[in-house]
Structure formats: structure tokens, C-alpha cells
Please model this.
Amino acid sequence: MKKFIIKIFQFTILLTISAYILGYLLNKGIEKLGDRDTNIWDNIIHSRIHSNVIINGSSRVWVHISPQILDSLLHVDSYNLGIDGYPFNMQDVRFKIFEKYNKKPQLIIQSADLNTLYRRSDPYNKSQFFNYMREPLLQDELIMMKGFSSFDFYIPALCYRSNLLSIYDGLTGFLDMKHYNTEGVYKGYKGQDQKWNGIELEKILSGDSLVSEIDPKIVQQFDFFLNYCKGNNIQVIMVFPPEYIKATEFTKNKQEVIDIYRSFSKKYDFSFLDYSTDSLCYDTTYFYNAQHLNKTGAELFSTKLAHDIDSLGILKKK
Model:
């Protein structure tokens, strides 16, 4: 019996060590692949971002707002932290971790749109988090999502369970057999050189109406974020980026959402720039789907946004 217990113990130790080694190799492989979101996390954790203007939001900022244009017109150093597929709760986590490792920005351009105030329960692009699972703030957020357990944060290989594609990506990345195409990515932004595709709009319009989900806890979290920025002398500009007009008009409670942002604008004396009815919103030439501008539209919008920010007179020039 004693020998059996010793063997079980030895097997457990060997299995644990193997899991750590495998997790390390897979994580390094994912990092080497060069996925945009993974690269941003890596730049954040290793204190590589020295920007005084931070762009924060979801895909509706990372494909909409060009730091190159903002830098050129506003004479600032901006960086786009937009995290694809996630509403404000994860955006807030990314910013807090950013601030932990990098200098405090002068200005945050914060996306404030119809998809900001809901809570996502299912993870998207999980592998972007695997190298950074020891971050307490990230742990607190991920543990509330389906597909994560507390063991994932301490035994790296467990993150990859039932995720064969990520295992393949990690191994091929580690062996330098595969890399993501990062051509055109600049300081977190990548313009989408695509033409209009109306399939998403057709799906939206096929129902009775859209209702933008508003989670009271996320609204409160947004409030805390603005309060923190106000107390730490960080200017915030809330921005409702352009969306194709037929999609916003089809959203039943659009005005309710906008009124929330306007109330915060008044409460904290932060600007709210609403582009939901901007001239860009009426022309599919500038979009590749109902919610996202293509590169042409994004660069026109970034130019317009830069001029509007400049007119506010809140930036101290470099």
C-alpha cells in the first residue's frame, strides 16, 4: 500500500511538472504568433506603452480610431487599447492593468455606444489571456465567465482543455511554423480594407427591433471609472462612434443609452461626442458591416474626431 501511494505521489508530481512545461511552451507559442490582442497585453505587462492619450473600447475603437491620425493632428502620443468583442467590464480591466505597468495618461478616449454597458458571460478569443492569468484583476473578471475555473490560473496547461485550436496555435507558434499577419497594425489600430457586406444588417432587421442590454452593475462600474479619472486628473472624452444609421434606428432603447452617457457627461464635466447621426452613418461606402467602419471611413472619422477634440481645448501639447 505504501509503495502504491508513493507511486501515485510521484505520478502526480510528474504530471504537474509536465503540465507546467506544456503550458509554458503553449503560452510562448501563442505569444510568438503575434495576435493583435495578445501583443497589446504583452506591451501592457512589459511597460512598453508611453502614450499620453489612451483609446479604450471594443472593436468599435480598434478599427475606428487611428492613433497615427490623432498623433499627427493633435501632436500627442496615442495608443489604441480596444479589445475585440468585449464590453466595458473587460475594457476597464485592461485599462487598470495598463495603468499598473505604464504611466498615467493625460486623456482617455472612451467608447460609449450601444454595446458598452452589457456583461459578456462567454469568453471570446480566450487564448489572448493565457499568458497573463496570474494578474488578479484579470482573474476576477475571467472567473465569472463560462469556460474558466480557478485551476486555470495556477496550472497553465489547463487553460487549453477542450480547446484544440489553441493547442495547435500554441505548438505551431512555438515552432515558428505559423504567425498572424500584423501588417497594417499601428499602435493597436488596424484599418479594415473591406467593402460593405449587408448580411449582418439583414440579420438585425429580420427581427422586430433591437434592444441594447444595460446591466446596472456595468453602469455602476462605468460611473466608478469616470469618478476615478476625475479624482486623478485624467480627462475623459466619451465617444459614440459611427454606426450605420439603419442599425441604430432599429435599436429600440438607443435614446435611453445615450441619456446615460449624457448624464455622466454632466455629472463629471467630461465631454460626450455623439456620432450616431453623423453624415458618415448614412453611407455604406464607409462601412464593412452595420457596426464597423472600413479603413476609408475610419480614417475620415479619426480626422473628424481629432478636430473635434482639438476644439475642446483640453489637451496640453507635447
